[in-house]
Amino acid sequence: MSKTLRTRKDGSRVYEIRVSRGRDPNTGKQLTPYSMTWKIPENYSDKKAEREAGKIEGEFIAKCKAGKVLTKQEKKQREQEQAKQREIERLEQASKPTFEEYMEMDLKRLEKTGYAVGTIQTYQCTFNRANTVLGKLKMEDITKDIVRQYFSDMQTESNLKYSSQVRHFSILKSLFAAAVEDGTIQYSPMADLKRPRKPKDEKGADNMQDKAYDEKQVTYIMECLNHEPLKWKALVIYMLDTGCRRGEVAGIKWENINLDTGEVTVCNNRQYTSGKGVYDTTPKSGKTRTVFLTEPALKIMKAWHKEQIRESFKKGIPCSAYCFNASRSEALNPTYISRYFKEFGKKYDIPHFHPHALRHTMATISIANGADVVSVSKKLGHSNTSITLDVYSHANEEAQKRANDVLANAIYGSENRKQA
Questions:
Q1: CA distance linking residue 56 with residue 61, whole number of Å
Q2: 187 and 143 in contact (C-beta within 8 Å)?
């Protein structure tokens, strides 16, 4: 190591400090030493400059031993390595998907895993809406605050119904969960978010008890049906009797109904999407199930079957294989059913009259009047009984109360029960 005083052409004085790096172990040649230059302030005396240079030399030697000093070659090599690392990071960042890109990948995944066309279309609509806000953001850059603000704006600025907002929330949450699962992101920004709160002034029901019709309302609906064409009367009663979904009703064929026993095999689900049109698929659970018509409902179905045959004969066309057909024997578009229900509700002043309400009505009235939950669950086509118990807990409570009355009558007698 050395410390050399030099005077530059401009008259300034500097100390050049060098620290040996030893020799190359392979070649034995002297390695380029570590070096630095310290410019002496003009007002420094020779003694002060010498003393200060000694301190600086000691600090420089300590830094060299600690590996904090690099030669020009080492600096150049480090800069090259840093530039290379920055390029790798840039390419990695560029390869990370935006929300829009991941959205497209997720839709393809859903198609490959066998999701129904209608379900995929619902996901597509949700993603498209979110895409206007989140589309260009990298998935890993979407934070909880960004998502929270997105749903806050949706509640205050959009005309989406609360049920649509909840569905929107669930779909996006599943997308981010899938991104965590496949390693695209480390943490879902929606993991701890609570679903949107229902506005106080929004109409609608929070549970199936409010969405279903009571027995008095059902009686009124049945009276109104006496003024409707037999085809639609049969369809509404069939839905109320079986609890089948709209698509399952549109897809039911005469070959699936035993008109002697009332046994019905639910194996077809007729759907409609704007992109694909009308098409047949399996029931929502993916499984075929068996339900039984009550005697009054079976009687009406038989009457409609005869009339359908007569109408086809008059028109000179083959009788439709479908129970509820369109004008020329072709299968019924499921959207026509919803349209009829809407017109029926307006005509007879029945608020929120829609096909699914009859499904809820069948389940609610059945359970509340003592039907066992397992049977009702199978009739509805739920994948397991816990779903039925969760959705129709209010009806199950009513059934338990009635069961308690039966038990009280049997054990204590009516008088003791009243006193209790």
A1: 9
A2: no
Half-sphere exposure of 123 (CA within 13 A, CB side): 21
Q: Are 130 and 99 in contact (CB under 8 A)?
A: yes
Q: Which of 157, 156, 154, 96 is nearest to 126 (CA)?
A: 154
Beta strand 2-7 pairing with 13-19: antiparallel
What pLDDT digit, counting tens, does each position of 305-317 carry?
999 999 888 888 8
Q: Which amino acid is at 15?
A: Y
Answer for the pair 356, 245: CB distance below 8 angstroms, yes or no.
yes
Residues 359-371: pLDDT tens digits?
888 888 887 777 7
Secondary structure string (H, E, C) spanning the chain: CEEEEEECCCCCEEEEEEECCCECCCCCCECCCEEEEEECCCCCCHHHHHHHHHHHHHHHHHHHHCCCCCCHHHHHHHHHHHHHHHHHHHHHHHHCCEHHHHHHHHHHHHHHCCCCHHHHHHHHHHHHHHHHHHCCCEHHHCCHHHHHHHHHHHHHHCCCCHHHHHHHHHHHHHHHHHHHHCCCCCCCCCCCCCCCCCCCCCCCCCCHHHHCCCHHHHHHHHHHHCCCCHHHHHHHHHHHHHCCCHHHHHHCEHHHECCCCCEEEECCEEEEECCCEEEEECCCCCCCEEEECCHHHHHHHHHHHHHHHHHHHHHCCCCCCECCECCCCCECCHHHHHHHHHHHHHHHCCCCCCHHHHHHHHHHHHHHCCCCHHHHHHHHCCCCHHHHHHHCHHHHHHHHHHHHHHHHHHHCHHHHHHHC
- Residue 178: which of 139, 225, 232, 235 has the closest Cα? 139
pLDDT of residue 374: 79
325 has which bridge partners?
331
**What is residue 92's predicted lDDT score, i.e. its pLDDT?**
66
pTM listed for this prediction? 0.56
